[in-house]
Specification:
Helix content: 10-25%
Number of helices: 6
Shape: elongated
Strand content: 35-45%
Distance between the termini: 90 Å
Largest sheet: 5 strands, antiparallel
């Protein structure tokens, strides 16, 4: 009899969903951390809640349950969620315990209070549902989520002993039961509502509408879990409210309501944004959220912003993503810690600039390890003289610095790609009255620069090197007390591009 009732319920939901499918929800690329964008998904209403289960997204849409299949990070068309309906058609949210596999879910009581249930195997092959009480806790339990070791459950409750509105609470699994919950404290909870918590690695992510300096409405925030030693050498990650809370910033936060996030493994997922009318958009992201945030400007040598500036990010696996600077020449990158990258900055009419990049993990307590990296691009105007203060390691050295190699790499690439252009390199070192020594340094520098460019693949007929007597005279009276000898001596080497 029970089986027949469930089949009838499923058929009812199928017919109801087919008649309701109308609202299009585009999946929009997160330009900061994602590399893909999918569109065309149609939902039969507004998503109230959603969660990940066995590799697919399950959603409560206007009180109906749907499954949104995922394949290679792409969301497919929603179908009726026969799996969740068979467990409980009144389900509003679910979560699976990460170590025991126990299935927990919530649904509304007859009085409208969200309550926690467990779906369990009563006998081999026979399953049942039971109310899960948290050691006498009589208030609402919404959106349960578990730490990676399964020792802590975080959830939302309207317990009036909180800080206002709905707060985040946690319960510890001990002595074979969930202990009486504790409030996560004032650092996490505000006078507004804290909603939809998600455990993500060492972070707790949640939505809040009660914090100052928000982007508008509900925004997404994160706080780092705290390592707590329990018995012996056992260490657990606990959300005990002692870490600072950080905004996830744009693009995860917007002027609309950014209400929740679902995760696909440890480095991908989606988040949900709703406007004031309740219309939803699903955004995708890839890459760990606890990463290195790099911001900076792309300018020319005169300090003018290059709004057409771009940065190409190449990972070790060959994956390449191009990011555009904004109208002020500013760029933002989110890079994964301890991973090797090659960053190439460029703009039309300018040399490209390469940077090898490997950043470390974020500082304790922080979500992002933020760094500033301003880039100056050199234009390639023919017949113009260019000098660089960062070519050599010292005022008497011909050793090329890492910054100097980047400059030469830009010239090498340009000469290889433009065979109708030649490069003239002149050296006029004259900070010493010792003519034989100056001549030695000039010739050594020219030889080193030429050999470096030849090794990079520049044809011999694309280069010309010689000593510039006028340049010697130009820099013979420089006051070393006012200017670094290294900078002055580096600028005694000039570069000029000419048409062949």
């Amino acid at each position: 009899m029970l089986k027949c009732c469930k089949i009838s319920t499923i058929i009812f939901w199928v017919l109801l969903s087919l008649s309701a499918m109308s609202q299009s929800v585009p999946i929009i690329e997160n330009k900061s951390v994602a590399t893909r964008s999918d569109e065309g998904m149609v939902l039969p209403g507004v998503i109230e809640d959603w969660w990940m289960y066995e590799g697919n997204i399950h959603a409560n849409v206007d009180g109906m349950l749907f499954m949104i299949p995922t394949a290679n990070g792409t969301l497919g068309q929603p179908i009726v969620d026969t799996v969740m309906i068979a467990i409980d058609p009144q389900m509003t949210y679910s979560a699976v315990h990460p170590t025991t596999g126990r299935f927990y879910y919530t649904k509304q009581s007859s009085k409208g209070q969200s309550q926690l249930y467990e779906y369990y195997e009563k006998k081999p092959g026979r399953f049942a549902n039971k109310r899960e009480k948290l050691s006498g806790f009589s208030y609402a339990v919404e959106h349960p989520t578990f730490s990676a070791d399964g020792r802590v459950m975080v959830f939302v409750s309207d317990n009036p002993l909180g800080f206002g509105g709905k707060d985040l609470w946690f319960s510890e699994w001990r002595d074979d039961e969930w202990q009486y919950p504790q409030n996560l404290g004032h650092l996490i909870n505000s006078s507004g509502d804290e909603l939809v918590p998600t455990m993500y690695g060492d972070f707790l992510i949640f939505a809040s509408d009660g914090r100052e300096q928000s982007y508008g409405g509900e925004d997404l925030y994160a706080t780092r879990l705290v390592a707590v030693k329990q018995t012996g050498d056992t260490v657990a990650m606990f959300p005990i409210g002692k870490s600072p809370v950080h905004s996830l910033y744009a693009p995860f936060c917007s002027a609309n309501n950014d209400v929740s996030m679902v995760l696909d493994g440890v480095d991908a997922g989606w988040w949900l944004e709703k406007d004031t009318s309740g219309n939803a958009r699903i955004f995708s992201f890839r890459g760990r959220l606890d990463c290195v945030k790099i911001t900076g400007s792309v300018t020319d040598a005169e300090g003018q912003a290059l709004p057409e500036g771009k940065v190409t990010v190449m990972r070790e696996n060959g994956e390449k993503v191009v990011y555009n600077a904004d109208g002020n020449g500013l760029y933002t990158l989110f890079l994964q810690a301890d991973e090797n990258y090659k960053l190439t900055f460029w703009a039309p009419g300018y040399f490209s600039y390469d940077v090898a990049c490997k950043k470390q993990v974020a500082k304790d307590g922080d979500l992002y390890c933020a760094e500033k990296n301003d880039i100056v691009l050199q234009t390639y105007v023919f017949d113009s003289i260019y000098t660089f203060p960062d070519l050599f390691a010292s005022s008497v050295s011909s050793d090329i610095t890492p910054a100097g190699r980047l400059r030469l790499d830009a010239y090498a690439r340009f000469l290889i790609e433009n065979r109708d252009v030649r490069l003239i390199i002149k050296s006029g070192y004259n900070l010493s009255k010792d003519a034989p020594f100056c001549s030695l340094v000039n010739n050594s520098r020219l030889r080193v620069l030429r050999e470096y460019l030849l090794a990079k693949g520049v044809p011999q007929n694309s280069m010309e090197t010689n000593v510039d007597k006028q340049l010697e005279k130009r820099y013979s009276d420089v006051d070393e007390a006012d200017v670094s000898p290294v900078i002055v001596s580096s600028r005694t080497v000039s570069f000029v591009l000419k048409k062949k």
